[in-house]
Amino acid sequence: MRHYSSILFFKFLVSVIFFLTACTTSKTPVPTEIPAVPSEQPGRELRQVTFADIPGWNADKVSEAWPAFVHSCKVLKKQAEWRNTCLLAEKVRGEESEIRTFLETFLEPYQVVLTDGNDTGMITGYYEPLLQGSRIQTARYQTPLYRVPPDLIVVDLAVTYPQLKGLRLRGKLNGKRLVPYLTRSEIRESRHLAGSEIVWVDDPVDAFFLQVQGSGRVFIEKTGETIRVAYGDQNGHPYRSIGRYLVDKGEMKLEEASAQRIKKWLSEHPARLNEVLDANPSYVFFREEKLDNPQIGPKGALGVPLTGGRSVAVDSRHIPLGVPLFINTTEPNSDVLLQRLVMAQDTGGAIKGVLRLDYFWGFGNEAGERAGKMKQPVKMWILQPKKDK
After folding, report:
1. Does residue 206 form part of some domain?
2. Number of domains in the chain
3. 265 and 176, same domain (yes or no)
4. Per residue, what are the HEC states of 168-233?
5. What is the Cα–Cα distance from 370 to 124, expressed in whole angstroms?
6. 116-129 pLDDT tens trace
7. Are residues 168 and 87 in the same domain?
8. In this structure, is residue 34 part of a structural domain?
9. Mind listing the pLDDT tens digit for each residue in 225-279?
């Protein structure tokens, strides 16, 4: 999972928020009105089309997306709109013709466009990396991966203010006040999280990019085991792109700011490592999971395993989690078309906006190479259950 929750409204709410966290009765008045959530402009429109209108629909092997669709249905069938469709899907065998017939019979496509008429967004990529680690700190393994700290407090703002759905406030208590949690630099420079280490890894840059990806695997050298570290939570500070930081500093051009290029620059400028990494104050905490089946991907924000090449991260304020999407884009740094059915099963801190996607490439170095280079235009269609006429 690749969430970095916003701390929007922190300054506004910090003076009154302790009533949500204190155990005793507070006399602090609950505000009756709060600022509206700033909406991203322009908004979203759905234009109904036919499957014949979708470029590449007939060429895609939709049976390869079926396992991901079945995973989504485990969640979607709890919604009235999807219940009957997902129950019928349980009876479908995994044959290409039967799956295509099912999709075209029970679903209808809508192109996702902006209210200003723009139909093209941006798609990037992510993957599940493999790191080298140790259960104890050694001369080689110096960078910790932390579990969720016990003093991290998460406030779901929608509990009190439904209009703030999806926004959570993160911080820690200072007396009776909720204050911002430590930034990346403060976590590194202090001993505040000592004792919360899951493992230690051998490369701070790999650890940083593991946080960007949201989950990964760690090979424990001493025992020979491989564990998965999955997204646990986040410190509440906004995600900032270190690629953008390097571009703004004149160290590289925007079109050069791939993960591979950034890693190369950092290896050539070790004295500036902390400066650059600290430009992103966001910090991700993990939880350890057993890796019983290496073929199964990490769980995304939907709570189901991600499928390499068939799962994407979306901004769930605009695209509902779980739904099938069809994307029309290209392979990274290529003119080769990438037109396929995918499932909206994850979210990400940098994935903001209607036409913004992050494509999950899977596990390993090859997936990482593709993910790090992916940044190109995309068009998309959402598939929804047919409405009763």
Report:
1. yes
2. 2
3. yes
4. EEEEEEECCEEECCCCHHHHHHCCCCCCCEEEEECCHHHHHHHHHHCCEEEEECCCCCEEEEEEEE
5. 10
6. 999 999 999 999 99
7. no
8. no
9. 999 999 999 999 999 999 999 999 999 998 888 889 999 999 999 999 999 999 9
